């Protein structure tokens, strides 16, 4: 019984030692941050939610097929601080998006910047921002 109690006390004490927690993900693991390209298309859906705002856009590929791309952006709070809101992008908007594509070739990406039909540049991150 004494050995069990000693083991239990030591186990509880060791479980209380703080250890660093890994981040929930890394952009460099999911997206090719070295590659960047531009897509033109029509917004089909905007999901203004945390942990990341997501939106979708129909893009015509080189063969004339329409592919629905998914785009990841920052959190609602970080975009709100930059002046954007849930109605900044709407379904039907024709836009241009510069992105870092998914490493696995899927039609998903992380946003570098978006250019609205009137030429307004928004949601810009990285070295290409004004």
Task: Kindly list the characteristics that best describe this protein.
130 residues, alpha+beta, five-stranded mixed barrel, extended
Overall 3D geometry? extended
Radius of gyration of CA atoms, rounded to a whole number = 22 Å
Order of helices and strands: HHEEEHEEE
Low-pLDDT residue spans: 19-25
Strand content: 25-35%
Give a quick account of the main beta sheet: strands, pairing sense, barrel closure: 5 strands, mixed, barrel
Structural class: alpha+beta
Percent range of helical residues: 10-25%
Put simply, the count of helices is 3
Strand order of the largest sheet: 1-2-3-5-4
The overall average pLDDT, rounded, is: 82
Q: Can you count the beta strands?
A: 6
**Span of the ends, CA to CA:** 70 Å
